Amino acid sequence: MFSKRSIRRRFLFQLIVASAALVVLFSSFLYLFIKQSIYDEKQTELITRAQNISTSKSLTTLQQRDADPLSELKIDLITLQQHEGSLEFSEITNKDQTTTLTLIYPFDFEHSTYLKVSRDITATKLLLQKILKSIFIINAFGFIVIIIYAIAFSKMLIAPVSALTRRLANMNEHLLRPIKVDQLPEEFEPLGETLNRLMGRIQNFVKYQKELFIGTAHELKTPLAVIKLKNQVTLIKKRSAEEYIEAIRITNQSVDEMNKIVSDILNIGRQEGAQLEMPTEADIIQILKKWEGDFALLTHSENKILKTHFEPESFTAVLQVTLLNQILQNFLQNAMKFTPEGKSIIFQSYLNNTDIIIEVIDEGCGVDETVDLFAPFKRQGNKSGAGLGLFLAKSAAEAIGAGISITNRTDGIDGTVAKLILPAKLYCLLPQRK
Q1: Total domain count for the chain?
Q2: Same domain for 265 and 178?
Q3: Judging by DSSP bridges, how do beta strands 280-283 and 315-319 pair with one another?
């Protein structure tokens, strides 16, 4: 019914063991309590009787042995040479399987005589045995009820998970529908919300994959058509050497464009491999300063200004550094591409509460914020490119658990703000150096 790894199986096994131990302990304590209460009552009765006789000294005028049939007590006067004088109870099982409770009570210390008060408690013993049997029968019935309830309760607990499993098993990447979280038990709402977010990411992935395949075919088809057309025109009639050189040059340009597209597609494959890399501890600020050094020379060569400001002094993170570098490279390359000569690029980081924000701000033409900029082959502005850079940056950011956004500047200057948010729950702030 249950596998060895079943939580329900372990729950039922532990419950059975705990319930069985509880039944045994409860039955034993209850029986001992009832038995002790009855015995205390019988002993009190014997003591009271012996005290009355000892006080009145009534046995001095009677025979050595006497019986009291009304109270079912048997009273004897015995002589003991050595006795401490304390009360002594004993329970004796006779040959006829009857049981007698006997009390030795001091009567006359001068003559070393004692009262031996006895009572047949065979009926009491039989009653206690019936009580013990009844206790175990009732508790065994309760134990069975607990097990049945536990089975039903465990089934009720796993019912939402089973329903989610059946729901997800009947879905495919084309028919992903969100789970109605409000119909789930309160404890399963976080699981439902997580599954909905996961399905949303799967839908976006499938959507982007389709756009990627369609866009790749379209982007490769155009330069191939240009190459074929130029070759056909070239073959129609003889041309001069300069014209052949020009035709080859145009063909090479088309080949370069296709190589760029193929290179971007290969980067997607490399990025998927980078997502499988083991995260390592790295100082984010030191990585930013490395990129600052690399792009300072490029901006200077293109007559552009790179302004940097990094806070805090140090910030350690555990993540795939390759993916972070891909994001930063894309941000800086886009800023370089769209910023005119003589304009500035701001490369900065700062803390927002405990999250670290990395921004690259350019003075380009801005973006259309109504368009999904992170979809494959989406281009902005009049610059060349396959339109896969932001798609790669978005995928890398999701892989390291970061947030990413591209918005227009709001300070009255044309340009965009590329922002990367590294959440504090994944990273920790290092003490500042003195």
Answers
A1: 3
A2: yes
A3: antiparallel
102 and 179 fall within a common domain: no
Does 166 reside within a domain? no
DSSP state of 65: E
Q: Supply the DSSP symbol for 345.
A: E
Residue-wise pLDDT for 201-259, tens only, equals 777 667 666 666 666 666 667 677 777 777 777 777 777 778 778 778 877 877 777 77
Q: Both 295 and 364 in a single domain?
A: yes
Name the strand (E) or helix (H) holding 418: strand 416-422
Give Cα 124 distance to the centre of its chain: 58
Tokens of 424: 């504090």
Element (H, E) at 342: none
pTM score, whole prediction: 0.48
Question: What's the CA gap between 257 and 268, in Å, rounded?
Answer: 17
DSSP SS3 for 224: helix
> Residue 162 and residue 184: Cα distance in Å, rounded?
12
The span from the CA of 166 to the CA of 352, in Å, is: 42
Q: Which residue segment(s) compose the domain that 270 sits in?
A: 174-276
Regarding whether 377 and 332 lie in a shared domain, the answer is yes
Q: Hey, is 173 helix, strand or coil?
A: coil
- DSSP state letters, 231-272: HHHHHHS---HHHHHHHHHHHHHHHHHHHHHHHHHHHHHHHH
Written as one letter, the residue type at 218 is: H
Residue type, 393: A
What confidence tens digit (pLDDT) does each residue in 151-191 have? 888 777 777 777 777 777 766 666 667 777 777 777 777 77
- Token look-up 């795939």 returns 320
Question: Token pair for residue 378?
Answer: 């989406």
Token couple for 381? 């502005």
Say if residue 215 is exposed, middle or buried (CB neighbours under 10 Å; 0-12, 13-18, 19+): buried
C-alpha to C-alpha distance for 325 and 291, rounded to whole angstroms: 9
For residues 326 and 396, is the Cβ–Cβ distance under 8 A? Answer: yes
| Cα(255)–Cα(384) distance, integer angstroms | 14
In whole angstroms, give the CA distance from residue 20 to residue 31.
Answer: 16
Same domain, 235 and 294: no
Task: State the amino acid at position 313 in one-letter form.
Answer: E
Reading the block at residue 307, the tokens are 């302004």
**CB contact set of 315 (below 8 Å; sequence gap of 6+):** 283, 284, 285, 349, 356, 427, 429, 430
